[in-house]
Batch of 3 targets.
Target 1
Amino acid sequence: MRKINIRAVKDGMVLAEPLKNANGSLLLDKGTPLTSFFATRLGQRGVTTVCVEGEPEPGDEASSVVQAAETQTIQLEELFSEKIINNSMRIIYDALIKIRNQNG
């Protein structure tokens, strides 16, 4: 098993562990073959790394140091789901989305 950056996912790689979101809900089960479509969607949901089957490849150790330094981003959409109950919350949510988009 090896942990890789979501941007390094190649079609046909297989998840070595279940992938869950910040709330613990299952996104993809262990054994799921990955595709570039899944990788793009997972990246949009804040997933930065995945564990895939196989032996570590050259460069994996160096990238794992960078990955360890990354913090997992909780998607604002998930954090605010069902909590935008008034205009004040909408203003806060919109401001956070704008800041996130400006900072990439």
Target 2
Amino acid sequence: MGEYERIVQPFAPIYDEHSEILILGSLPSGKSRETGFYYGHPQNRFWKVLAAVFEEKIPQSTEEKRTMLLRNRTAVWDVIESCYIIGSSDSSVKNAVAADVAGLLKKTSIRRVYVNGTLAGRLYDRFVFKLTGIEAVRLPSTSPANARYSLEELIESWRVIR
């Protein structure tokens, strides 16, 4: 299966003073770390889902993705600041240290938090909720590993962020 590797969150949160919604993943996948931006795996459906929810064209470049998020008052980050993980397997995460989500919320107008997948939800509830008092809405993962949901089902589930 591979060996554990310590990963430290390589990306800063994407937000500005107008952000009202925060979407939290668990930790960038190996592919995302390679591409240098959130949800960089070509089979991850995150950008397709958000484009459909926001009724926009699917962004291609990092700048287009960042612009779409901020135009729609949406921030993106991850629950994990650092952890040990084998490859990109969420099920292998151990010794997770939470990101300072509460600190981010204090600098913004964010009042709604959504988590992308089970692990992000579990870690948010365990580490972050007690510091923010804001319950996170769990959304089905956009990861290619989540074959249980079709793209259309994901879009329908994610419409709640509007």
Target 3
Amino acid sequence: MILAKKIRLKPAPEQEKQLWKSAGSARWAYNWTLARQEDNYRNGGKFLSDGVLRKELTQLKQTDELKWLYDVSNNVTKQAVKDACEAYKKFFKRLADAPKFKSRKRSKPSFYNDNVKLKAKKRKVLIEKVGWVVTSEQIPMEEKYTNPRVSFDGKYWYLSVGVEQEIDRPKLTSEVIGIDVGVKELAVCSNGMTFKNINKTKAVKKAEKRLRRLQRNVSRKYEMNKEGNRFVKTCNTIKVEKSIRLLHRRLANIRTNHLHQATNAIVKTKPSVVVTETLNITGMMKNRHLAKAVAQQKLFEYKRQLQYKCEKYGIRFMEADKWFPSSKTCSCCGLIKKDLKLSDRVFKCDCGLVLDRDFNASINLAKLAS
């Protein structure tokens, strides 16, 4: 099984400048590809393959305006073109939304490194046009890596690679676990396990309170230094924005770590089947009262982690039908309570069953596999 390995890079100042050049070139090539595809579509042309666009980009690099692209590896721009074309193919197949242009301020700086040219030795990796970069830990020694990517998370540079590993799959039990996810609790399992909403903890609330204070602070600084129709960014504004960026990073790491702990706890019970509900996240985000809470739960990331960990341990992963009434169905007699409201947190049935709404839903999900 191919598993990702992510290690921190410790580049020298000159190397870091080169990393920023590569990330900027990848972003430019991605946006150039989207612009070419959209312009070609408006003129009635067919979809341009990545091979055609890469040849066109190679010719453009020879002009004086784009000679700066020679400062980075040609694999960086070629892969960015390929990524943009793949994003369009997924959009045409209705597997994803239409690809958007990458903003210099909001997009995550990242680029591709050729998997053949990536070399590793003791606590060092060789990155194209950057050189040997020191790493925080030893990368697994392989002849060929899968999809190497270099990215910046707001504080540090990281290298992520796919490494093929042999997995010793444990002996599974006959248990079936149904999982109901939501906003009140992250996940409620049919075996009694419950994972709290990390956003309701003291640490996250304290960090969010500080984030709101810093955002108000930087907003006032922009208004104070406004000159006509433009805003002047002072040194103090840059300092506050850096604090905001690091605080966003900390909150994201807290939430991701909580998801890893929850999914690990589920798969370590070694069930034979895991059944979860299919959520319409896009539809839930349209509710302005719940949109922020749903986004902070990172439910899609939770599903992704649970899915690959089940595959790793040989556990069967099932998703219920989107319209399956898991919350409205009585887990004892099977009666569907159509008038159940979202505010009703306790499920009460005419047969005498009184049970927590989410726990009742998880039991119904577990019954789907039997």
